[in-house]
Amino acid sequence: MGNAASYLLVFFGGGLGAMLRHLINVTCARCIGTAFPYGTFIINITGSTVMGLIAGYLAFKGEASQPWRLFLMTGILGGYTTFSAFSLDAALLYERGELGLAALYVAGSVLLSIAGLFAGLAIVRHLT
User: Fold this and answer.
1) What is the domain extent for residue 27?
2) pTM score
3) Is there a contact between 22 and 86 (Cβ–Cβ < 8 Å)?
4) Which parts of the chain have pLDDT scores under 70?
5) What is the tens place of the pLDDT at every residue in 95-109?
6) For the chain, how many structural domains are there in total?
7) Backbone dihedral region for residue 36 (phi beyond 0: left; psi -120 to 50: alpha; all else: beta)
8) What are phi and psi of 38, to 5 degrees?
9) Number of neighbours of residue 97 by Cβ within 10 angstroms
10) Separation of alpha carbons 3 and 27, rounded Å
């Protein structure tokens, strides 16, 4: 499979995943309200669960071609939530016995991502 085809699979899968994420966010806001980020909460949990199902299937059955992996895991799940990739990376570190690295990865990703968001907000507030 060519490089261009790989990018197109990720592109179309990502679009589908992003549409699904938006649908869930809007539906949750309308049905449950916005006092808690229910949509994102549900998306992160379901995305990580589906990533686990696909990764587990591929690890034990290994019957998916690279195009399907790109379309499903990188594309759809990447567009749906990157939390699924984060969860898979943390689980792989843990399963390799790299407990310290897994903990550092989880804590560092969460703390530095939130810090980065606050830094971005502060920069925009300062500039405007």
Assistant:
1) 4-127
2) 0.78
3) no
4) 1
5) 999 999 999 999 999
6) 1
7) beta
8) -60, -45
9) 9
10) 36
